[in-house]
């Protein structure tokens, strides 16, 4: 255990936790915005897979990481249009349509990968960008301020999402249609348009999450996300539909994962129980939520399609 | 006043045409993808159907593939009717399979007349526990069940891996040094009997159908079901009527998990392997039935009885997909993508039908029926 | 509710009719054009170009020195799907069906007796389950692991080596245990992390990062998710040892050597037996002595001559049995 409590190991663990948390945070923030408007999207994982593949393919063929992030964003927006049309205009049951999107993303990204790439080929990874002055701070400098731009973006989006939801007319509309669409409608807020926009933003974030994942790893393979999108949905519930809470959930998940991996590498966790230790992030997430015992209520109109009858 | 004949006819026509169109468009997209892959789409469609229905054996394989979907789907129905969402099918299937495996390992010599019901019951109980945990967490600790069921899926996979490569591993695997994470071959006395010789149709299939029927009766013909649905309809009103909301929420997720657990037992003792083996992932054991079961349930309108044909349809798609890959040498992921497209299109179509009808009504081609047909959102 | 049910009923009626129609239009399967060549099919759990387990078998069949028509069903980690594919190939009259996954064994025990003229090849497995038309194969993966371990210990300056594994089971354990033995013989400390997943690339990457934090300056790993760990090795300029297939393409300057499974060695023997009328019933081990396990060095990495000599000595030792 003493090996763990050295500065270099702790700093590395914190850095790993933040890297691990980045894609979860981006996806969960997007899902938060969607759910606040009353739309559950279980298809996040599918969107992440599609955007991750297309981002990877872009880097592979052009070498341009920025273009890759842009392509991922675009894929997220396209999937957003599709999901918004399905849920807002066709009023499809959200649980099932989301799973439909997930299954499609899983299959199509796999298919494209096999047709266009085949054998996994490494691509350049996102470089770390040091923030002047802050990066040189002792202890916190390395884990917090020597990260990739994708990580800064993810954490920077947390306060921006708070402002968006709480301080803008759009955010007010989003919360209104998520709580009481009938009332919002009678006040002249377009439920359809508001939800459409919220879904687009949410899926764009999911697209960025896919890009963050693949650009941090520098490699793609079928089902790269391994259910990350579903965990991101769970983190929205953990965070009680609040961006800071969602960030707390993503960080908790990342910290526990990183610590377990570090302890495995140090031999603190023996090989014979490595799988039991692998349960830790999920157990601690549930445990933390029991302790926090926040009796918050979900957006009242969550999963309920709206039609003016 | 009854709606005019013309309106009924149009409604019927739309009712038939729109889902057909949706399925056709989905298959057309699939065909386009096949062409893009350089394969003949007609051969592809033919292979898909041939693989699912082409022979008695394949039909049986489709039914066997549908079995866990029926059970998970029926369980999902109970949960959803109580307004709880169960995304933990994967963990409950695994829990049921593990407990039934331990049962078979503990009493290998029992007569099949006792052992088969016992392993099925063990599956039911194992899944029930795995379902009741998130149920109780929701009811008594306000932990959202979407979060806890997703997390439990992750937990159970690791637990399965631990047991199958540790305490439950086939001693022979240790001896031979191959260390394949699987149990020894379980007692044949626990094996589910085959119903039709030469096919894989086993007892699990009628059990699943019976369980779906039982779920229907439970929900709509018993006081228990009434209470569950009352909680689902309005927890506040149910509480006012003296119903213990917490206990019913736990019960709903427990029952939902129990049916999934039963599917787990059937997966082990209805399989040719007669043993549990892991490839490290949940899907490797469950074939993603925990997720596909949700789709089957929602596709069947959250009605336990309609879940049966719905599960059969998805079972057919899944078995047909294997044939598609084998005959045309296209990646199996094409079939996965196609499944997603079909789900999306068909689920979107019910609304299109209503909209089209409205459009026709507004253009006053037909008289407006006074009863608006609406699809319920649950 | 009533109306919804009616809609659902119609939906199924229509879809059912559609299904029947399409089935009615369907004819018989196309039997593969044999044209004298031996027909071989592979059913495997991961992608055929995964740079690991499945690819090793596809490469092996393609390396066989005879005329072969090969069909592949890959990505069938779900046993039921694999079983359907195995049976389907046998029904189509394929001569040799390779069930490339331990987990397919139970299905094979049901299928193989129904097709006595078909040869089934199954692995990794140490016995044929008493079936006389099944050949079994398994690699002595610990041998290459040992050789890689010897080299790793020799090139490590910190004396710490990191290993990234999936779950502690199967031939991953054999390779890793062999590796640990070899590296510890060379005086190195080996830290092993099992991430708990064959697919989680992100966890594999972070596991590799954790090793590097703990002074590891050489890495290895087994299973398809190691592509993530190799990426970390590249960014940290740390040498990597591969197994199952030649992983040089992942890191052309840093892969020192890969233990490659040359299944064609045992496949050749099995097919020769088949030609002489023996359809199965024997188990084969892939090892260094029979040339099935080969350490393929990467010319892009400048391995010191004495280390290479030590590796070759270890290979000779293992080859001698």
Determine the CATH superfamily of the largest domain in chain C: Response regulator
Question: The CATH topology of the largest domain in chain C is what?
Answer: Rossmann fold
* Low-pLDDT residue intervals, each spanning 5 or more residues of chain A: none
Biggest β-sheet strands, sense, barrel of chain A:
2 strands, antiparallel
Strand percentage of chain A lies at under 5%
Average of per-residue pLDDT values of chain C: 87
Query: Which structural class do you get from the secondary structure elements of chain C?
Result: alpha/beta
Backbone shape of chain A: globular
Instruction: Tell me, rounded to a whole number, the average pLDDT of chain A.
Output: 91
Describe this structure in a few short sentences.
The complex is a heterotrimer of chains A (309), B (378) and C (321). With 309 residues, chain A is mainly alpha-helical. Helix content of chain A is 71%, strand content 1%.
Give an account of the 3D structure.
The complex is a heterotrimer of chains A (309), B (378) and C (321). Chain A is mainly α and 309 residues long. Chain A has a domain at 26-230. Chain A is 71% helix and 1% strand. Chain A is built from 13 helices and two strands. Chain A has helices spanning 7-36, 44-62, 65-89, 94-116, 141-145, 149-167, 169-179, 181-186, 191-217, 228-238, 243-266, 274-278, 280-292; strands at 129-130, 146-147. In chain A, strands 1-2 form a two-stranded antiparallel sheet. In chain A, helix 1 (7-36) crosses helix 7 (169-179) and helix 7 (169-179) crosses helix 9. Chain A is globular, with a radius of gyration of 20 Å. The model of chain A has no long low-confidence stretch (mean pLDDT 91). With 378 residues, chain B is mainly α. Chain B has a domain at 68-319. Chain B contains 15 helices and no strands. Chain B has helices spanning 5-36, 41-53, 56-81, 89-106, 112-141, 145-165, 171-176, 204-221, 223-233, 235-240, 245-269, 282-286, 289-299, 304-328, 333-362. The longest helix of chain B is centred in the N-terminal third of the chain and has 32 residues, at 5-36. Chain B is globular, with a radius of gyration of 23 Å. With 321 residues, chain C is α/β, with parallel strands linked by helices. Chain C has two domains: 38-140 and 263-286, Response regulator (Rossmann fold), CATH 3.40.50.2300; 141-260 and 293-319, 3-Layer(aba) Sandwich (Rossmann fold), CATH 3.40.50. Chain C has ten helices and twelve strands. Chain C has a six-stranded parallel β-sheet, sandwiched between helices. In chain C, helix 5 packs parallel to helix 6, helix 5 packs antiparallel against helix 10 (305-319) and helix 7 (201-213) packs across helix 8 (226-235). Chain C is globular, with a radius of gyration of 23 Å. Chains in contact: A-B, A-C, B-C. The interface between A and C is large, with 41 and 41 residues.
């Amino acid at each position: 255990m003493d090996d763990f409590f050295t500065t270099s190991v702790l700093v590395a663990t914190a850095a790993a936790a933040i890297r691990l948390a980045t894609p979860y945070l981006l996806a969960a923030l997007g899902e938060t915005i969607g759910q606040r408007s009353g739309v559950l999207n279980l298809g996040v994982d599918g969107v992440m897979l599609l955007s991750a593949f297309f981002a990877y393919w872009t880097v592979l063929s052009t070498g341009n990481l920025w273009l890759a992030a842009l392509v991922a964003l675009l894929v997220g927006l396209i999937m957003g249009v599709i999901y918004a049309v399905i849920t807002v205009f066709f009023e499809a049951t959200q649980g099932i349509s989301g799973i439909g999107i997930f299954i499609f993303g899983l299959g199509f990204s796999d298919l494209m990968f096999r047709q266009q790439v085949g054998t996994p080929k490494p691509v350049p990874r996102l470089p770390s960008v040091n923030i002047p002055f802050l990066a040189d701070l002792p202890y916190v400098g390395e884990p917090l301020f020597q990260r990739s731009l994708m990580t800064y973006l993810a954490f920077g989006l947390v306060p921006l999402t708070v402002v968006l939801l709480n301080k803008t007319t759009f955010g007010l509309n989003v919360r209104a249609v998520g709580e009481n669409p009938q009332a919002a409608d009678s006040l002249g807020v377009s439920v359809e348009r508001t939800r459409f926009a919220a879904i687009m933003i949410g899926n764009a974030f999911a697209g960025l999450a896919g890009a963050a994942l693949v650009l941090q790893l520098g490699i793609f393979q079928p089902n790269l996300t391994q259910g990350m999108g579903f965990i991101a949905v769970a983190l929205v519930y953990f965070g009680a539909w609040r961006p800071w809470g969602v960030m707390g959930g993503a960080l908790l998940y990342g910290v526990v994962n990183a610590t377990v991996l570090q302890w495995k590498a140090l031999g603190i966790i023996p090989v014979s129980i490595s799988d039991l230790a692998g349960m830790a992030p999920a157990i601690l997430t549930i445990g933390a939520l029991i302790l926090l015992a926040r009796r918050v209520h979900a957006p009242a109109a969550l999963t309920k399609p709206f039609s003016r009858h | 006043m009854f709606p005019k004949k013309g309106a009924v006819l149009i409604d019927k026509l739309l009712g038939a045409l729109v889902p057909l169109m949706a399925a056709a468009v989905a298959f057309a997209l699939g065909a386009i993808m096949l062409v893009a892959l350089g394969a003949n789409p007609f051969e592809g469609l033919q292979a898909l159907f041939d693989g699912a229905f082409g022979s008695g054996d394949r039909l049986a394989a489709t039914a066997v593939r549908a079995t866990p979907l029926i059970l998970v789907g029926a369980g999902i129905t109970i949960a959803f009717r109580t307004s709880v969402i169960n995304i933990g099918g994967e963990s409950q299937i695994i829990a049921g399979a593990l407990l039934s495996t331990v049962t078979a390992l503990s009493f290998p010599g029992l007569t099949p007349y006792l052992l088969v019901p016992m392993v099925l019951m063990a599956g039911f109980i194992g899944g029930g526990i795995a379902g009741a945990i998130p149920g109780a967490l929701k009811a008594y600790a306000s932990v959202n069940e979407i979060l806890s069921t997703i997390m439990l899926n992750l937990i159970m996979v690791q637990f399965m891996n631990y047991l199958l490569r540790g305490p439950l591993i086939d001693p022979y695997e240790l001896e031979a040094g191959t260390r394949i994470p699987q149990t020894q071959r379980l007692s044949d006395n626990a094996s589910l009997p085959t119903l039709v010789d030469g096919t894989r149709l086993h007892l699990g299939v009628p059990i699943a159908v019976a369980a779906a029927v039982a779920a229907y009766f439970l929900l709509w013909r018993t006081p228990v079901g009434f209470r569950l649905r009352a909680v689902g309809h309005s927890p506040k009103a149910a509480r006012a009527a003296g119903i213990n909301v917490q206990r019913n929420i736990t019960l709903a997720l427990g029952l939902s998990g129990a049916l999934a657990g039963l599917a787990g037992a059937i997966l082990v003792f209805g399989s040719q392997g007669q043993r549990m083996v892991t490839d490290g992932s949940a899907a490797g054991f469950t074939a993603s039935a925990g997720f596909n079961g949700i789709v089957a349930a929602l596709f069947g309108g959250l009605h336990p009885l309609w879940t049966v044909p719905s599960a059969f349809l998805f079972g057919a798609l899944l078995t047909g997909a294997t044939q598609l890959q084998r005959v045309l040498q296209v990646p199996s992921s094409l079939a996965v993508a196609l499944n997603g497209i079909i789900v999306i299109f068909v689920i979107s179509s019910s609304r299109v039908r209503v909209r089209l009808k409205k459009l026709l009504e507004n253009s006053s081609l037909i008289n407006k029926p006074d009863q608006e047909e609406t699809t319920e959102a649950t | 509710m009533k109306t919804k049910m009616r809609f659902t009923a119609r939906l199924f009626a229509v879809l059912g009719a559609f299904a029947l129609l399409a089935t009615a239009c369907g004819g018989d399967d196309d039997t593969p054009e044999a044209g004298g060549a031996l027909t071989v099919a592979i059913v495997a759990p991961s992608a055929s170009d995964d740079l690991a387990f499945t690819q090793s078998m596809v490469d092996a069949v393609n390396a066989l020195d005879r005329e072969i028509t090969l069909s592949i069903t890959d990505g069938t980690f779900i046993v039921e799907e694999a079983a359907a594919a195995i049976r389907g190939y046998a029904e189509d009259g394929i001569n040799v069906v390779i069930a490339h996954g331990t987990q397919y064994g139970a299905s094979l025990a049901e299928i193989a007796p129904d097709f006595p003229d078909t040869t089934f090849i199954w692995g990794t497995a140490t016995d044929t389950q008493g079936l006389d038309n099944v050949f079994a194969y398994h690699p002595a993966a610990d041998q290459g692991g040992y050789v890689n371990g010897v080299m790793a210990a020799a090139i490590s300056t910190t004396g710490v080596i990191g290993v990234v594994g999936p779950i502690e089971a199967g031939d991953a354990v054999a390779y890793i245990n062999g590796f640990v033995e070899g590296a510890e013989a060379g005086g190195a400390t080996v830290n092993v992390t099992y991430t708990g997943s064959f697919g989680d690339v992100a966890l594999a990457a972070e596991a590799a990062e954790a090793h590097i934090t703990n002074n590891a300056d050489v890495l290895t790993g087994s299973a398809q998710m190691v592509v993530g760990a190799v990426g970390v090795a590249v960014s940290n300029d740390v040498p990597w040892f591969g197994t199952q297939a030649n992983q040089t393409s992942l890191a052309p300057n840093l892969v020192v050597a890969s233990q490659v499974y040359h299944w064609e060695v045992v496949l050749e023997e099995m097919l020769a037996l088949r030609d002489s009328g023996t359809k199965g019933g024997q188990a084969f081990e892939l090892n260094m002595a029979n040339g099935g396990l080969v350490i393929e060095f990467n010319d892009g990495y400048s391995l010191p001559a004495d280390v290479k000599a030590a590796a070759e000595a270890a290979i000779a030792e293992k080859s001698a049995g």
